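Worked example

This section walks through a single chain of length 298. The input is the sequence exactly as stored; nothing has been trimmed or padded.
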Amino acid sequence: MTRHGKNCTASAVYSYHEKKKDTKSSGYGSQSDRLSKDSVKDFDCCGLTLQPCREPVITSEGFLYDKEAILEYIVHQKQEYSRKLREYEKQKKKSTEREREEVQSVKKKDVEKFLTAESVILTKKSSAFSKSQEKGSGSTSGASGDKKANDQGNKLPSFWIPSLTPQAAKEETKKPDSKVYCPMSGKPLKLKELYPVKFTPVVNDDSKPTIAKDARYMCPVTHDLLGNSVPCAVLKPTGDVVTMECVENIIKKDWLCPLTGKPLKETDIIEMNRGGTGFSGSGNELKAKSFRPSMQTS
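Given that input, the structure is written out below as tokens.
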């Protein structure tokens, strides 16, 4: 048997390589790619702006934000809550008025039905089979039939407007939640639970600014360089960022702050959420996936 080429189409098996190549060139099917270190924010960057924090604050869950950005986010969420609350109250008022109108229309129909029944009662003697009675009954039935047809015509749905189709359900605005949630963890966020963070810059003779340096900060106790690959923690009373190695080997021995000498509790240590390192064993899901329409063969 002769040797096959890479793009051979005579094979009976549709190989994985060919499928992947056709998916990439055609634009159909779901495609996945693993993100590199360049696509992940650094440990000292804000979770909203993705830039180095000028005035960093941290939440109880360990997510870092720039104070200006997180305050702007909280104000925006409060404004959204006020807007949704106004819409909810407006819809509630409309539904109350609609219910009141329905009750009044039912009462009005009952009165009209009673008056119609009263007008049918005859006070004069007449034969049961007179022509006038037959004409009157015919006109009455015709009028009622026309009225029913008009009512049904007014209630016919519109198939050209999506919100008026028979299958379309009425959208009801629910009462908004007054809580502000953390954009990273999704848990309730309070302003008093934002703790200031203080990074210790690396002392070098370079004339470069701190932001332009690859190694910008270090642990104030062990002087180890901080980065995405180094687990870090924030001491809540002082705001200093130290390594988890320092916490395990130094702080947890006597539960005293190595910088101030004051006693610490376990709740005073906030472990920081770091970005990914680009390695598969870093514990972060760095896989991006885009779902596209898939081709179906008959």
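What to look for: Residues 67-120 form the longest helix (54 residues).
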